[in-house]
């Protein structure tokens, strides 16, 4: 009797974990033929593909890029995450549909920590709350407000470059980007903040990397992620998970203290006289402390937004700036061209807002780096809220989608001589072939595009101008020999010190 129950149980398990998703994907493959590629690995799914690519090519994304390069008709990959179909989409028309109908999806809590980290911030919010937050946040991201931050950006970059105490270029750019975020959004209360014994900006990035590692780099962590969700951190936490719990607690206390200190200051001294001088915290606290509070914003939301901005504003920008340095080291002739442009447009002084539009070569260089290797290699994966049709592909509620843009960015269907690193392509009027506006979108597109994109471009330009004028950027040959491309939270090279900055 028990044997039959056991066998029935195993069969049900086999059906729901393996056979059902396999058949769902297979039917799509049969319908779409050459336009779809099926890569099914029971239970472990896409992780097997990505780790396999790393083993074979020293690059987590190489195999996926290869599929799209080799098959020009390929529109999407059919993978699985555990027992759920996972569609990795490369077709720009389908990507457009996903980004324009953003309300039909939810972003996956890939760090399994949304109630303690970014869950209530702009990146993960939906519906009216997302609209309210985006409107409130629009003010500190207004272009004129950002322009006023350029002198501060120059100061931070010069100070950090003078300090000269960094283990690698990413360490340096992270320290700069974190400080700029602090001064732009949170003010004096958060300056020089230390968490877990290091600069707050480094700790937040490392914390997120360690969470990623604890989930995706461990069988135990991954199974817990799939089966019990966010309870992973409470139920039978191992040493790594306990350490992460402690650090998340510390980060929350820090954010809460910064906010409470500002509230105390406002209660004593009132708000700043000129609304033009309001930073992120002032704008949000004005809403919170107002009796009407029409957006219904809560302190918990502000804490979550704080963590979102700290993370989104630091890790992405610093990784792109450091990736630019990586390519400068590979192409010294481009370094010379950019130097010439910077000397002609700016001379020896600070970067001013009037210079930004004139730095055409530099702008094109950053765009080319974002085309070739954008560390924020795509938006977050999404879950369908309902059954739907994306072009002619039937998607069921609960299926997972990745509107990936990095596969189009390196494909001759869209870019001429796509394998060449040629920043001058962005100086031409028509850069992208067959463009529907959703091919080259390093900052995503549609209503949920990156709210910080102008700030990021400004900041990267300021960082690069100072470095290009004052440093040689060179590869370290013995480290370059073992170069690997790893997707942790962001996609970046290892070792981090394979290039170096040498002061002129
Ligand atoms: C080069 C640097 C940057 C890159 C490549 C980048 C990329 C992106 C991408 C691809 C998205 C879409 C995510 C998705 O929909 O799943 C996004 C959204 C977002 N980014 Fe950025 N980002 C950068 C810098 C920044 C900065 C400096 C900030 C803020 C200080 C920021 C804040 C945000 C926020 C809050 C969102 C969510 C917007 C929403 O859902 O309405 N980003 N970013």
UniProtKB/TrEMBL annotation:
Keyword set, alphabetical order: Heme, Iron, Membrane, Metal-binding, Monooxygenase, Oxidoreductase, Transmembrane, Transmembrane helix
Regions annotated as coiled coil: none
Span of the signal peptide: none
UniProt xrefs under InterPro entries: Cyt_P450, Cyt_P450_CS, Cytochrome_P450_Monoox
A GO term, aspect molecular function: monooxygenase activity
Listed PROSITE patterns: CYTOCHROME_P450
Spans through the membrane: 6-28
Protein family: Belongs to the cytochrome P450 family.
Protein name: Cytochrome P450
């Amino acid at each position: 009797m028990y044997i039959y129950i056991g066998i029935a149980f195993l069969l049900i398990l086999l059906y729901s974990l393996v056979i059902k998703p396999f058949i769902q994907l297979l039917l799509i493959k049969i319908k779409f033929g050459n336009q779809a590629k099926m890569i099914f690995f029971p239970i472990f799914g896409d992780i097997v593909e990505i780790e396999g690519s790393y083993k074979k090519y020293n690059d987590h994304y190489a195999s996926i890029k290869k599929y799209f390069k080799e098959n020009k008709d390929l529109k999407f990959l059919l993978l699985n995450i555990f027992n759920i179909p996972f569609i990795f989409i490369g077709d720009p028309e389908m990507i457009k549909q996903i980004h324009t109908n953003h309300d039909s999806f939810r972003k996956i809590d890939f760090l399994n920590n949304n109630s303690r980290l970014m869950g209530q911030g702009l990146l993960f919010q939906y519906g009216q709350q997302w609209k309210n937050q985006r409107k409130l946040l629009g003010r500190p991201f207004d272009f004129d407000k950002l322009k006023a931050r350029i002198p501060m950006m120059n100061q931070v970059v010069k100070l950090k470059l003078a300090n000269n105490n960094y283990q690698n270029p990413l360490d340096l750019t992270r320290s700069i980007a974190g400080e700029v975020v602090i001064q732009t959004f949170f003010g004096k209360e958060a300056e020089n903040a230390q968490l877990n014994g290091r600069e707050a900006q480094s700790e937040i990035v490392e914390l997120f990397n360690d969470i990623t590692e604890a989930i995706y780099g461990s069988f135990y962590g991954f199974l817990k992620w799939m089966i019990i969700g966010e309870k992973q951190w409470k139920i039978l936490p191992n040493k790594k998970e306990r350490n992460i719990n402690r650090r998340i607690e510390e980060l929350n206390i820090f954010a809460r203290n910064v906010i409470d200190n500002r509230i105390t200051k406002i209660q004593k001294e009132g708000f700043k006289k000129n609304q033009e001088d309001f930073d992120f915290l002032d704008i949000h606290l004005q809403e919170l402390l107002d009796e009407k509070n029409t957006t219904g914003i809560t302190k918990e939301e502000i804490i979550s937004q704080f963590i979102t901005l700290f993370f989104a504003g630091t890790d992405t920008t610093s990784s792109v700036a450091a990736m630019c340095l990586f390519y400068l080291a590979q192409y010294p002739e481009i370094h010379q061209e950019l130097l010439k442009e910077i000397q002609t447009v700016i001379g020896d002084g600070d970067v001013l807002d009037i210079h930004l539009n004139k730095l055409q070569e530099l702008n094109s260089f950053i765009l080319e780096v974002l085309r070739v290797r954008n560390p924020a290699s795509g938006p977050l994966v999404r879950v369908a809220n309902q059954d739907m049709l994306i072009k002619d592909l039937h998607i069921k509620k609960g299926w997972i989608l990745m509107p990936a843009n990095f596969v189009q960015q390196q494909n001759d269907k869209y870019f001429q001589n796509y394998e060449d690193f040629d920043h001058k392509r962005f100086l031409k009027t028509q850069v992208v072939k067959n463009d529907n506006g959703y091919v080259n979108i390093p900052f995503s597109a549609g209503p949920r595009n990156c709210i910080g994109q102008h700030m990021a471009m400004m900041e990267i330009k300021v960082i690069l101008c100072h470095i290009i004028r004052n440093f040689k950027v060179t590869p370290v040959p013995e480290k370059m020999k073992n170069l690997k491309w790893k997707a942790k939270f962001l996609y970046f090279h290892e070792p981090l010190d394979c290039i170096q900055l040498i002061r002129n």
